[in-house]
Automatic annotation (TrEMBL):
It comes from the Bacteria. Its EC number is 6.3.3.1. This is Phosphoribosylformylglycinamidine cyclo-ligase. Its main location: cytoplasm. Pfam families: AIRS, AIRS_C. It comes from Sanguibacter gelidistatuariae.
Amino acid sequence: MTEGLTYAAAGVDTAAGDRAVELMKSAVARTHGPNVVGGFGGFAGLFDVSMLKSYERPLLASSTDGVGTKVAIAQALDIHDTIGFDLVGMVVDDIVVCGAEPLVMTDYIATGKVVPERIADIVRGIAAACEVAGTALVGGETAEHPGLLKVDEYDVAGAAVGVVEASALLGPEKVRDGDVVIAMASSGLHSNGYSLVRAVISHAGWTLDREVEEFSRTLGEELLEPTRVYASDCLALARDEASQVHAFSHVTGGGLAANLARVLPTGLSASVDRGSWAVPAVFDVMRGLGQVPWGDLENTLNLGVGMVAVVGAEGADAALAKLAALGLPAWVLGTVSADDGANGADITRGSKGVDGGAVRLTGAYRV
């Protein structure tokens, strides 16, 4: 007698999913403070927001994102406990840009086959990054998609919600003529532009285990360097009245100029000196390997600047001192002034649907 088909025969192993949950529970629990209600494993994550009663006008901020093709590097190296920092950084650091504190996060992992240890590694990384950000990981989902994804393939995405008092909202409305633009260093490539990076290394014929003198480690180790999570540092800076923070810009897809232009008001322009920092080696190596034009490079990768603060002129020194105390490398990129209306290859005006201010890149990069 022919046996009927089962869910397991179709390629979905629910027992493996349960095992993955058991392996990740302790890491997730470490992100839970007294505001998390009901613990782990409910249909919905619960978070006590009684503190919003003290807000005059609380604004909820939400963001969602993924890691992109950087997951291909993690899969090729079979290292999965760092990719969570890339996910959390892409999500919570978009929220903190407006001055909001990221309260809760959820994740979603789709894979061809649930390997409990691998899924647990991914979630442990997400939880560790949430601890750094001060964000509770309150829920998630792991979906097994046999036939859609290969056995060792997976993709990750996440979403977060935060809150900011309306009067403390940061953004273009607070930016003024004379403000100073301050850069915060990236940890490397972060999570953007990996389609270009992977095309470059494929074209060059380099393997991930190649030792690269400029990196003092292998190519794979450099490419898998986790995204720096800025949320708690940015909040500390924003709460420091002496720093006079008016806006933040998270430098992700599109590069520095396009993302900075999003937080400038129409009528103002930021002048950014390309020579104000030394571009980290990974960017110059990618440029040389692929003969990538500087213009394409700066429109795709962060080039060493992961987050930007726009502060009042009188607050610049305090802001730099605060960031130094936090252990975050930072420097002055340039200043904000009236927009003269000029156009050109080095000028970006508005971006991603935002009719904002302009950014003028000047000088040459140092490598």
